[in-house]
Amino acid sequence: MSTGTTPSSDEALDASADRPDPRRWKALALLGFVQFMFVIDMTVVSVALPRIQGELDMSRTGLAWVVNGYVLMAGGLLLFGGRLADLFGRRRIFVTGVVIFAIASVISGAAMNPEMLIYSRFLQGVGEALAAPAALGIVFLLFSAPADRVKAVGIWGGLSGLAGTLGPVVGGLIVADASWRWIFYVNVPVAVIALALVGRLVGETRMERTGQKFNFTGVLTATAGLVAIVYGLLQAAERSWLSTQVLLPLFGGLALIGLMLLIESRAAAPLIPLRFFTNRTRAVGYLVGLTLSCAFFGFTFLTTLFEQQVLGYSPLKGGLSFIPVGLGIAFGVGLSTGMIPKFGVKPVIIVGLLGVTGGLLLLSGISVDTHYASGILPGMLVLGIFFGLAMPGTANTALYKVGTQDTGLASAMQNVMQQVGGALGLSVLVALALRLGGDRLAEGANPRAAATEGYVLSYRVSAVLLLVVALVVLLLLEKIGIQGDWATPDDKTSADAPLAGTGGADTPSGDPATAGTTTAGADDRTGAPPGR
């Protein structure tokens, strides 16, 4: 229902869609390129670890933190970064995160000792946690027309999977021809280009704040809880699930999350409006994203181990072997963005989940005598295509009926699910594989055969999990089209309307260079008359 001069949400969407910003696709390309850099940085370093270990004389535990430190901070601080973007300006927080990431990349590349590299990787994770949710929030607001938004958010979701796949490829190419330090230095020109262009393509937006205080207690408990949980999951990759090093951070993290929920339920200006999570479609979408990331990161890591340790591939050859996965993802994303307007989100996600399941089952047929063309390539292609098919719909469910004032939080939650899913894949699935392999080795099996049995088990466990989630989607996900599925701040009838005290609608920052632009001006997103 509209009040005063403010039109209804449907009218607002139509009005906004009539005058799309001509810069929006260029802005998507720029922001997507930066997001690609963030995601690829999680996996690109993996093939360089042996050289890093030799040059910096790192222990195996220290070497693990080169990867884990980045994931820990990126996953633990994402909600904080998303809310900062909503409250203090999405473009401003994006720029801040990119600057931090670039500085940390230079420090990583110049690292002279293990401590310098590990701490700089922590700082890189902080940069991603600030910039990534701000970037997706900007994309959500740039594309106000529902059909364009489906395509844009779908492309964004597919980029994450593509980047995760190409990390080993890029890392293998760099390590083969240059120093491992260039894995970090190549981030700098990307960051410089982003900083130079973002002001020209993106205006500033933020939640309107009417004097309420920022809820730092909720920030601290939420962030500490997520950091502890991610840390516990990462520890489970190396230790028993019943060990103190695993149980203490996991239960401590859950306790902190519980405390955060109590604080947020009583706060006048909560970090996370709890009513935000009552929508079952968004909740199911987050579950799908978590499970897909778990299966995908587990698949990437385990297949890399299988190719290098069982089949004897070099890091470069192993990295290049993942190219078909990336091509399949790109094809699947394109297919999905065409299918969703015709069939809706729900059936496309289900088909995607079933297809990824099929790809994993194909891969579970590997043995010590497997040939790439017949034993690995078919499963990779099927998995890549259907993973690309599933991701755009999953990204759209994460932003389903989210008012513009909460886009940073919604996109942060999507990224949190990906980070936690990746941690699960690198802990639970890898632990299953390594422990079964160890048991078979203790029974006298051939080392290569024992390791392969472990990988097969993890592939099949992933397949079963995806089947269960496909059933959940079938039973619980709402039917989602592309019209009228996103709330606006002025839609008072929405269950996701702004909570009292959270600030209400987004407004331009007042920057004369950007205020009132169709890229970011609140007037253009909501369809309200100028000067509202």
Strand order of the largest sheet: 1-2
Q: Radius of gyration over alpha carbons?
A: 23 Å
Largest sheet: 2 strands, antiparallel
Terminal CA distance reads: 17 Å
Q: Could you tell me the mean pLDDT?
A: 78
Q: Low-confidence spans: pLDDT under 50, at least 5 residues?
A: 1-17, 483-532
Number of strands: 2
Tell me the overall shape.
globular
Percent helix? over 70%
The ordered H/E elements are: HHHHHHHHHHEHHHHHHHHHEH
Q: Tell me the number of helical segments per DSSP (H or I, 4 or more residues long).
A: 20
User: Oligomerization state of this entry?
Assistant: single chain
Summarize the structure in words.
By secondary structure, the protein is mainly alpha-helical. It has helices at residues 9-17, 24-43, 49-56, 60-76, 78-88, 90-109, 114-142, 146-177, 182-185, 187-201, 216-235, 244-266, 280-310, 315-320, 323-343, 345-363, 372-398, 407-442, 447-476, 522-526; strands at 205-207, 506-508. Helix 6 (90-109) packs antiparallel against helix 10 and helix 11 packs parallel to helix 18. It is globular and about 65 Å long.
